[in-house]
Amino acid sequence: MRIPFVAGNWKMHKTVAEAVKYVKELRGLVKDVDGVEVVVSPPFTALHAAAEAARNSNVGIAAQDLHWEREGAFTGEVSGAMIREAGAEYVVVGHSERRTLFGETDATVNRKVAAACAAGLTPLVCIGETLDQRERQETFDVLDRQIRQGLDGLTGERIAQLVVAYEPVWAIGTGRNATPAQAAETHGHIRKRLRQWFGPDAAELCHVIYGGSVKPDNIADLVSQPDVDGALVGGASLDVRGFLEIVTRSRRAV
Question: Which residues of the chain have a pLDDT value below 50?
Fold first, then answer.
């Protein structure tokens, strides 16, 4: 059985001092929490300090993005090797804000996923449809394209190690979220495609998590769905106590 995976994406929030304080508090709060993987994703400036604060704990650290080249004339960019050296184990790739605000495409997502794997990082690959696409009943077509093109060239072994985050764009930061039934249907489709294109073992091991206005009061219903393996949490992860509630309510009954 896949262990639930919960990641907090802080986006452009928290100074180094704030990040360290948060991680130190969180590691104490979750030290005896089992049955769920816990990750936080601070901004680049706080990455190293947060990783040091999380050392020898059950809190993982993720970067929020990376460049696909190891080094070069790319002003303002950060490579996978740099992220790994800073102490992160994971990296978010293809978040809808990167796609919509900064023009990322499935092709660039694919290059970043490959770079993350080459650097020894576990990618959290984000996919999802806009409201217009959902209303035009294009959700599955959009997801198929994003999976096929974004994960092109990866082996089943690599897919098994990934985290795929389904984030309906219409639910991010809006207070709206997919119903448990919508999440179940969409995650089931994603799992089916992973099975079809990368094999049953890869599909069974790959985490498929939900993101989009996740809160303490809706997480339990979401993770109760068989193909929803946790959550990528945005604004609700900024408060450590609220994030703890989401983490503890993500554990599945055995």
Answer: 254
